[in-house]
């Protein structure tokens, strides 16, 4: 934390909320949780900053984000290491998260010169009609433990170039990485020089702090990432005050492996998607829908690949680190019990590394052969459980892919052009992400990220997701000396 410039008073309090490392369960910090009144004061300060920031030309706002990208490059290793310590990600994935922050900064810098609207043909002579985009206000960001830094950066980089202020409430499980990000942005702000005070703020708090952000009418947009349970609470509360939401909620992602699939590629891809980040990605592969003719061979190869996966301290040369906490471990075990009750045949799933880390929760990733898409398969258990189901016809595979409440990511492994194109067509996958010959996880920054149905419908990151952070205005200008009305109405 010191290396990243976070004052020790912020995280080394004598009392307060305890932060544990999932690596070994040790206490790594204590932080003070902010009360709703403190959150309100932060929102007030952010709103004042917004009133000034919206007047700064967008390319100049981009300069702040460019500087932030530079600071992140300089501190990539230290921030990545902190992600490993606080969220339990392996070194490569901790660094990968910081790289994602750098990538979105680059994207946002370019965008700061491209926040363009439209000109539209007017039906009236001597008139111009156009569409323009304006800054929105304070953007509230609520984030989950499993992407403790990248999700905020996706939101903050776009929000800042769009002329907004940001108030961030990170997961109570990962406050340290949030404090570190804020300190690093502070360096960029110092180098920038004249940004208004209070432009970016972090609220360290639990659900009550999140609710204060959700209910405040000075926050026109709440971008909330987390469980579907959380979104079910946040969505209606923001809507009740006519605020806007970007909801990025739970996923239950499937891959179809068709008879023509390249199995070598499929196995490698399944391994990364299903066991990477110990199954704690919103895009983790949870359902494998494999053609009956290939099931036995694929399962045999997968089991062999799973047996080679190194599990342990994420800072060492391992591929799978710990689950975030005991509650996550218990939820996984309950899921496996239910799967057995519903006819599943389970391999793996047991606790490992217990002697070395008695207060942490490492598990062997589980493969569960299911007789069909039962209740447990339709539910997102945030742990490395891969349910395997067989299919006979392509239509049946598509139906299984779509027949769950969530709609985030999906993929197909096939070399049959018809299947590949049908999967990505109007009658194909109903998810926000549909990939061919690539797994479900590991999206790039350039595309819009998000999902349908209970995943919440939000879009973040690339493409035109920036429009979610601005308000749209339609302008009509009459440069003639007459006053024609639309629809040919005569009113005199
Ligand atoms: P969580 O829902 O427990 O918490 C997420 C955040 O919401 C935390 O900051 C929490 O304090 C806050 N929160 C909870 N209830 C709230 C309320 N009523 N009002 C305001 N804030 C509230 O999720 P988690 O366990 O941290 O993360 C795992 C979940 O997040 C999984 O379901 C995963 O799929 C999902 N996720 C989704 C995406 C995506 O982009 N779709 C990305 C990452 C994680």
Question: What can you tell me about this protein's structure?
Answer:
- By secondary structure, the chain is an alpha/beta fold.
- It has helices spanning 36-53, 58-74, 76-87, 91-111, 150-161, 175-192, 207-215, 228-240, 263-275, 295-307, 326-341, 394-402, 417-423; strands at 17-20, 27-31, 118-120, 127-135, 138-142, 165-169, 200-202, 221-225, 244-248, 253-257, 285-291, 345-347, 351-352, 362-363, 366-369, 385-391, 406-407, 409-413, 433-436, 448-449, 452-453, 460-461, 470-478.
- The strands form 7 sheets. Strands 12-15-16-11-10-18-19 form a 7-stranded mixed sheet, sandwiched between helices. The chain has a 5-stranded parallel sheet with strand order 7-6-5-8-9, with helices on both faces.
- Helix 8 (228-240) links the parallel strand 8 and strand 9.
- Helix 1 crosses helix 7 (207-215) and helix 2 (58-74) packs antiparallel against helix 4 (91-111).
- The model has no long low-confidence stretch (mean pLDDT 97).
- The structure holds nicotinamide-adenine-dinucleotide.
- Nicotinamide-adenine-dinucleotide (NAD) is lined by residues 142-147, 169, 171-172, 206-207, 210-211, 214, 225-227, 230, 233-234, 248-251, 282, 380, 382, 408, 455.
- Residues 17-474 form the Aldehyde dehydrogenase domain.
- Homotetramer.
- Its EC number is 1.2.1.3.
- This is aldehyde dehydrogenase (NAD(+)).
- Belongs to the aldehyde dehydrogenase family.
């Amino acid at each position: 934390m010191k290396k990243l410039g976070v004052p020790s008073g912020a995280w080394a309090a004598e009392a307060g909320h305890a932060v544990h490392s999932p690596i070994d369960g040790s206490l790594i910090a204590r932080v003070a949780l902010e009360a709703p009144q403190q959150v309100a004061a932060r929102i007030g300060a952010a709103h004042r900053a917004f009133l000034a920031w919206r007047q700064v030309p967008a390319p100049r706002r981009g300069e702040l984000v460019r500087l932030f990208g530079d600071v992140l490059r300089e501190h990539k290793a230290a921030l990545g290491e902190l992600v490993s310590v606080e969220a339990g990600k392996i070194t490569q994935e901790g660094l990968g998260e910081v790289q994602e922050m750098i990538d979105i900064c680059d994207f946002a810098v370019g965008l700061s010169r491209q926040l363009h609207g439209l000109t539209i043909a007017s039906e009236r002579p001597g008139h111009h009609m156009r569409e323009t985009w304006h800054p929105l206000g304070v953007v509230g960001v609520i984030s989950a433990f499993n992407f403790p830094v990248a999700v905020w950066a996706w939101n903050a980089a776009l929000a800042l170039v769009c002329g907004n202020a940001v108030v961030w409430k990170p997961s109570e499980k990962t406050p340290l990485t949030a404090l570190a990000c804020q300190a690093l942005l502070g360096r960029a702000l110092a180098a920038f020089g004249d940004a208004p005070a209070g432009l970016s703020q972090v609220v360290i708090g639990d659900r009550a702090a999140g609710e204060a952000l959700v209910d405040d009418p000075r926050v026109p947009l709440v971008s909330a990432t987390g469980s579907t349970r959380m979104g079910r609470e946040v969505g209606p509360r923001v809507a009740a005050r006519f605020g806007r939401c970007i909801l990025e909620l739970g996923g239950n992602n499937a891959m179809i492996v068709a008879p023509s699939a390249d199995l070598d590629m499929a196995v490698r891809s399944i391994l990364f998607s299903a066991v990477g980040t110990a199954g704690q990605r919103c895009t983790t592969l949870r359902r494998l829908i494999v053609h009956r003719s290939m099931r036995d061979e694929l399962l045999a190869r997968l089991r062999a690949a799973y047996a080679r996966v190194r599990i342990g301290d994420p800072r060492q040369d391992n591929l799978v680190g710990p689950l975030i906490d005991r509650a996550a471990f218990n939820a996984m075990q309950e899921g496996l019990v239910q799967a057995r009750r519903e006819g599943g045949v389970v391999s793996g799933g047991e606790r490992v590394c217990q002697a070395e880390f008695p207060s942490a929760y490492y598990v062997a990733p589980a493969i569960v052969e299911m007789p069909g898409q039962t209740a447990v398969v339709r539910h997102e258990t945030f742990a490395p459980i891969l349910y395997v189901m067989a299919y006979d016809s392509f239509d049946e595979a598509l139906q299984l892919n779509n027949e769950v409440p969530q709609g985030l990511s999906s993929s197909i492994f096939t070399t049959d052009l018809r299947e590949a194109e049908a999967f990505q067509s109007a009658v194909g996958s109903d998810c926000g992400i549909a990939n061919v010959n690539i797994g479900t996880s590991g999206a790039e920054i350039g595309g819009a990220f998000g999902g349908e149905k209970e995943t919440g419908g939000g879009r973040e990151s690339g493409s035109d997701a920036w429009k979610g952070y601005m308000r749209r205005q339609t302008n009509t200008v009459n440069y003639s000396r007459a006053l024609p009305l639309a629809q040919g109405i005569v009113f005199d």
